[in-house]
Amino acid sequence: MIRRLLVPYLMGKRRDGLQRVQLIDSQPWAVLQSPQSTATELVDKDEQMRSMGRVYAVLAEHVQAAVEAGDLPVSISGDCVSTMGVMAGLQRAGREPQRMLWLDAHGDFHTWATTHTQYLGGMPLAMLVGRQDRRQNRRDSITALREAVGMRPYPEEMVLLSDARDLDPGEDVALARSAIVRCTLDQVLGNLSTHETLYVHFDTDVLDEAQRMPALKYHVPAGPRVEEMAELFRCLRDYPLVAVSVSAWHSELDAGDQAARICLELLDELLPGARSTPRERNSATTSSTQSAKGDRAVSSDSSGASGTS
Asked: Which of 7, 99, 131, 172 is the most buried (most CB within 10 A)?
């Protein structure tokens, strides 16, 4: 069975708009919350780290319980730091994956040594693999976050990163010197084996869909389209999945729940087992079969933020 976990937080801050997923999807989602993490704004970076530690420790407990019950944990959260909670739960349950596929438009590989913005959302993959906090005269807050969540660093060489087309100075060098394997979307299957357990992390901003999904965070041009991701996900259904996590869209900007519906349909392509939902099937599974006239029931509005996630 599939255990669906909804985590309505963005970098330690409450984002209750994500709970709209429950209204769109016919499948049940367990909404996870940390009683001590209720703020919608956090300025202090260390307090953000502490809040994320509390939130993703809760996620780790639920992932562990799901795996021990024989279920496949699937989470939707506001950011990629949620991967630490998922990984911690897998490790505690004795199911650390043999490979991890990280789908993202960005590298997420900054540390305090390379960041120019101090944006924690640019650091999740570096946090996951154990890169250290290099700030002088400060405590190692990244290690403290991992310890709060209860996660051991995951080996770099077991991570497959695709497509990471937007890298910042310093981050690009750090990735090139790491053991992380990088590839384009069409090279993913060639770098995976059906004999290895797999954890798939999908940051929705990997998609180049500003026209159809203006609520996507940090839009980067020249990325894969929904149809290409759907095709990959259909192939990955044959792999031994141990977990799936999604870093979500801007729920407060998602007019008509367009991004939510499309991303849930993409999950349909990846997750085992047939299912039906009340949402209109207007994207991943239908648009690839439409006529050359391009008749699509999608928004023509275009917008998007820039930055690193």
From this structure: 7
pLDDT at 284 over 90: no
| For residues 109-127, average pLDDT | 92
**Phi/psi at 52 (nearest 5 deg)?**
-60, -40
CB contact set of 14 (below 8 Å; sequence gap of 6+): 8, 37, 38, 39, 40
H/E element, 159: strand 159-166
In angstroms, the first-to-last Cα distance of the chain is: 31
- The amino acid present at 76, given as its one-letter code, is I
- Binned at pLDDT 50, 70 and 90, residue 306 comes out as very low
Amino acid at 228: E
Q: Which CATH superfamily is domain 2-285 in?
A: Ureohydrolase domain (3.40.800.10)
Encoded tokens for 161: 């990163």
My answer on whether omega of the bond before 71 falls inside 30° of 0, hence cis, is no
- pTM for the model stands at 0.88
pLDDT value, residue 135: 62
* 79-116 per-position pLDDT tens digit: 999 999 999 999 999 999 999 999 999 999 999 889 99
Per the model's pLDDT, the better-predicted residue between 213 and 276 turns out to be 213
Q: Which two tokens stand for residue 90?
A: 């897998």
The pair of structure tokens assigned to 15 is: 């984002």
- Residue ranges of the domains in the chain? 2-285
In this structure, the number of other CB atoms found within 10 A of the CB of residue 166 comes to 22
Q: Is 246 exposed, middle or buried (0-12, 13-18, 19+ CB in 10 A)?
A: buried
Q: What does the buried/exposed string (b/e) look like for 6-17 if buried means 16 or more CB atoms within 10 Å of the residue's CB?
A: bbbbbbbbbbeb
Of residues 90, 204, 102, the one with CA closest to residue 149: 90
